[in-house]
Design goal:
Radius of gyration of chain A: 21 Å
Number of helices of chain B: 8
Strand content of chain A: under 5%
Number of strands of chain B: 0
Order of helices and strands of chain B: HHHHHHHH
Structural class of chain A: mainly alpha
Largest sheet of chain B: none
Structural class of chain B: mainly alpha
Distance between the termini of chain B: 55 Å
Largest interface: A-B, 48 and 40 residues
Number of strands of chain A: 0
Oligomer: heterodimer
Helix content of chain B: over 70%
Shape of chain A: globular
Shape of chain B: globular
Distance between the termini of chain A: 31 Å
C-alpha cells in the first residue's frame, strides 16, 4: 500500500500545486512533498514489503536499491528549488513546480514497474512532464533544445514500445500467452522465441538507451542540460536517466533468462565503452560548462552500461554508481546553475574568473569536479573501482583498459573547462551581471549536502545499503 | 475476416505513399488522420467471437484520438503558422516516394522471412507495420517543417500500433489506453512547442534550429 503512496503523494502534490493560488508560497510544495516521499521511502526501505511475482507495481529489491537515491536527490533539489524560484520570481512557477512533482511520482512508478507496458507508459509520461522544465527560461535556445529533446526522445521511446511488443510476441510465438510482466517473461525463459527476443533487445536497448543518453543516441542531452535550469539538470541526470537504466536491467534479466545474456552483455559493453570514449572526446572540445555536465553524464551512463555488462559483480557496482553518480552530479549541476546565473552565460568565451565573483559556488564546483572524476575519498571513486575490479576478475582486460583511458581523458576535459571558468580575471560585463546574484545559504547548502552524501557513500557506505544492492543483484540473476 | 483486415492495411500502406508524395501540409495531415481512423477500426475486425466492449472502447478512443483530436491540433498549428507547403525538403518528394515504395516491397519480403505464428502469417499486419515505421522515419529525416516531422512521428507510431495488434488478445485495456493517452498528450505538448518555436523564430523551418552545437 505504501508503495502506491510513493506515487500518489507526489502526483496529488502536483495537482494541488497547480491549483495553489499564491506564487510566493507554491515552491514550498517541493520540499514538503519531497520530505514525505523520503519518509515513505525510508519506511519501505527498512521494512520491505512482500512482493507477489505477478504484481505490476511493487517495491521490489531493485526498486529498493535505487529509489532512495532518487528520493534524497529530489529532496535536496527541492530545497534548492525554493531559493531558486525566489530568484526567478519574474516567471510564474505554477507549471514548474507541478511538473517537477509529477516527475517524482512518475519516476517512483517507473522504478517500481514490473510490467513492460506500464514501464513504457511511465517513462513516456516522465519524458513529457519534463518538457515544461526544459523551456522554463523561455529563450529561443531553450525552445530549440526542447524540440530536439522531444523529437529524439520521442522517437527513442517509440522504438522501445516496439521492442516491448516484440518481447510480447516472443512470448506468443514461443507458446506463451504474451503476458508482459517481467516475472512471467522470466518464467517462460528459454521458451521465448529467440529471433524475437534478440529483435526486442536491440529495440529496447536503443529506446531506453536514448532516454539514458548512451552514445550515439545522446545528442539531445547537451542541448537539454545546457539550456535547462541547473536544478532540472540535476533531477534529469540523477533520476530520469536512472529509471531508463533500471528498465534496461529488468529487460536484461529477461534476455538472460531466455538464454541470450552473453549477447546482451556484449552489446552493453560496447555501447558503454563507446559512450565513455565519445563523451571524453567531446569533453576535450566543449566551450560551455553546462554542456560539459551533459557530456559527463553521458560518460557516467556509459559506466553504468559497462557495469551492467559485467555480470552480478558489475551490476552491484553499477547500482552503487547510480547512487554515487546521481548525488555527486546533483551537486555539480546545482553549483554550475549558481555560476550560470552569476555569469549570465554558460559559454567559456565570456565567463571566466568566477572564483572572484562566486567563491563558494566555485569551490563547490571544483570539489565536485574531483569527486565526479573519481578522486578518493568520494563515492564515484569506490563505485568505479568496483566496476574496474568486476572487469578484471571477469577477464575483460582490454575493456577495463579502454574504460580507464576514457576516465583519464574525461578528467583532462573536465578540469580544462572548470579551471578556465573559475580562473583568470572576470570581464567587466560579467562583474556587472554577477551583482544581481547573491550566494545565499539557500543556494549553497543543497549542493554541499549532496557533496556530503557523496563523501558519506565513499567513506562509510552503510551495510544495509550494500545488502540492498546485493538483494537487487539476486533478483536480476536468480541462482538456479 | 482477415480479407477485410488486409484491405484496410493495404489502404493504410497506400496512405503512407500519399503522405510521402504530398507537398501540401493539409494533405499530409489528412493522410495521417485517415490512417489513424483505419487503424482504430482494425481491432474490431480481429475479434473472432463477436462484440467485445473492451475492444470497442479501445477502437473508439483510437478513432477519436488519432482521427480527430490529433489532426485538429496539427491543423490549428498550420493555420496559426500560416504555412501550406513543405518547401525544398532535404529529400525530394519523388525520391522519398520511390524510397517508400521500395521500402513497402522490402517490408513484404522481410515479413515472409520473419518467424510468425500461422494465424499472423496470412495477414499484412507485420509488413504494414514495417512499411509505416519506415515511412515515419523518411518523413522525420527528410522533411524540414516541424509539422511534417510531427506527422512522420505519428505515422511511425501508427506502424508500432499495427505491430501491437498482434498482441491485442494479451495486452490489458489499461496498457492500451495508457499508451494512447501518452501519444495524445505527447502530440499536445509537441503542438505547444511548435507554437512557441513559431513565435520565437518566426518560422517552422527546423533548419533554423542550429544555435546549439559544438
Amino acid at each position: 500500500m505504501i508503495a502506491y503512496l510513493l506515487i500518489l503523494v507526489p502526483l496529488m502534490g502536483a495537482a494541488l500545486a497547480a491549483l495553489w493560488p499564491r506564487e510566493s508560497s507554491r515552491p514550498w510544495f517541493l520540499p514538503v512533498v519531497g520530505g514525505l516521499h523520503l519518509l515513505l521511502t525510508c519506511a519501505l526501505f527498512l521494512a520491505p514489503p512482500a512482493v507477489a511475482p505477478g504484481d505490476w507495481l511493487a517495491f521490489d529489491p531493485l526498486a529498493r536499491a535505487v529509489l532512495p537515491a532518487l528520493s534524497i536527490l529530489f529532496l535536496v533539489c527541492a530545497a534548492y528549488g525554493v531559493s531558486y524560484l525566489r530568484i526567478r520570481a519574474e516567471r510564474s512557477n505554477r507549471v514548474f513546480v507541478a511538473s517537477l512533482l509529477a516527475i517524482l511520482g512518475l519516476l517512483s512508478a517507473g522504478h517500481q514497474a514490473r510490467h513492460l507496458g506500464l514501464l513504457w507508459i511511465t517513462t513516456e509520461a516522465v519524458t513529457l512532464a519534463a518538457v515544461p522544465l526544459l523551456h522554463f527560461n523561455g529563450t529561443p535556445r531553450a525552445f530549440e533544445a526542447t524540440w530536439k529533446y522531444l523529437l529524439i526522445g520521442g522517437t527513442g521511446i517509440a522504438l522501445s514500445l516496439l521492442g516491448s511488443f516484440c518481447l510480447g510476441y516472443a512470448s506468443l510465438h514461443g507458446g506463451g500467452v504474451g503476458d508482459l510482466t517481467f516475472a512471467a517473461l522470466t518464467a517462460q525463459g528459454t521458451g521465448l522465441s529467440r529471433p524475437w527476443v534478440l529483435t526486442a533487445w536491440v529495440l529496447l536497448l536503443v529506446g531506453y538507451g536514448t532516454k539514458m543518453g548512451l552514445a550515439p543516441m545522446h545528442t539531445w542531452k547537451p542541448d537539454a542540460y545546457g539550456e535547462a535550469p541547473g536544478i532540472v539538470g540535476a533531477v534529469l541526470a540523477g533520476g530520469v536517466t536512472t529509471v531508463a537504466f533500471t528498465a534496461l536491467l529488468r529487460v536484461r534479466a529477461v534476455i538472460g533468462a531466455a538464454g541470450a545474456g552473453a549477447i546482451a552483455d556484449r552489446t552493453l559493453l560496447v555501447i558503454g565503452l563507446f559512450s565513455i570514449i565519445l563523451a571524453a572526446l567531446f569533453l576535450l572540445g566543449t566551450r560551455n560548462f553546462k554542456r560539459m555536465l551533459a557530456y559527463s553524464s553521458v560518460e557516467h551512463m556509459g559506466i553504468l552500461s559497462l557495469g551492467a555488462a559485467l555480470g552480478p559483480a558489475g551490476v552491484a557496482a553499477a547500482l552503487f554508481h547510480v547512487w554515487s553518480n546521481g548525488l555527486t552530479k546533483g551537486a555539480l549541476f546545482l553549483a554550475a546553475g549558481n555560476l550560470r546565473r552569476a555569469a549570465g552565460t554558460a559559454s567559456l568565451d565570456e565567463a571566466r574568473g568566477l572564483s572572484q565573483l562566486c567563491p563558494h559556488s566555485s569551490a563547490i564546483l571544483i570539489t565536485g569536479l574531483f569527486a565526479v572524476t573519481a578522486c578518493p575519498p568520494f563515492g564515484p571513486f569506490f563505485s568505479e573501482l568496483q566496476v574496474v575490479r568486476a572487469g578484471l576478475t571477469g577477464g575483460h582486460n582490454l575493456a577495463t583498459g579502454v574504460f580507464l583511458a576514457g576516465l583519464l581523458l574525461a578528467f583532462f576535459g573536465l578540469t580544462r573547462v572548470v579551471f578556465s571558468l573559475v580562473d583568470g580575471r572576470p570581464r567587466a560585463a560579467t562583474r556587472e551581471e554577477s551583482r544581481r546574484f547573491v550566494e545565499t545559504a539557500g543556494v549553497l547548502a543543497p549542493p554541499l549536502v549532496l557533496l556530503g552524501c557523496s563523501l558519506w557513500l565513499g567513506l562509510f557506505p552503510p551495510t544495509i545499503l550494500r545488502a540492498a544492492w546485493a538483494a537487487a543483484v539476486l533478483q536480476l540473476f536468480p541462482t538456479p | 475476416m482477415s480479407g477485410t483486415l488486409n484491405v484496410l492495411i493495404g489502404l493504410a500502406m497506400g496512405l503512407n505513399l500519399v503522405a510521402l508524395g504530398s507537398s501540401r501540409l493539409p494533405a499530409l495531415i489528412q493522410a495521417m488522420s485517415l490512417q489513424g481512423v483505419l487503424l482504430g477500426v482494425m481491432p474490431l475486425l480481429l475479434e473472432e467471437e463477436g462484440f467485445n466492449w473492451r475492444v470497442a472502447v479501445v477502437a473508439a478512443a483510437t478513432v477519436i484520438g488519432k482521427g480527430i483530436v490529433i489532426p485538429n491540433l496539427l491543423r490549428r498549428a498550420t493555420r496559426a503558422a500560416n504555412i501550406e507547403r513543405e518547401s525544398d525538403p532535404f529529400l525530394g518528394f519523388v525520391p522519398s516516394l520511390l524510397l517508400g515504395a521500395g521500402g513497402t516491397i522490402a517490408a513484404v519480403a522481410l515479413a515472409r522471412a520473419l518467424p510468425l505464428l500461422p494465424e499472423h502469417a496470412g495477414t499484412l499486419l507485420v509488413p504494414g507495420a514495417i512499411a509505416s515505421i519506415l515511412t515515419g522515419f523518411i518523413l522525420l529525416i527528410g522533411r524540414v517543417k516541424a509539422i511534417s516531422q510531427v506527422c512522420g512521428y505519428l505515422i511511425l507510431e501508427n506502424g508500432i500500433y499495427l505491430f501491437g495488434l498482434l498482441l491485442i488478445h494479451s495486452t490489458p485495456l489499461l496498457v492500451e489506453s495508457g499508451i494512447l493517452l501518452d501519444v495524445t498528450v505527447g502530440v499536445f505538448v509537441i503542438g505547444i512547442i511548435v507554437d512557441r518555436i513559431q513565435r520565437a523564430f518566426d518560422s517552422l523551418d527546423t533548419r533554423r534550429l542550429t544555435t546549439l552545437r559544438e
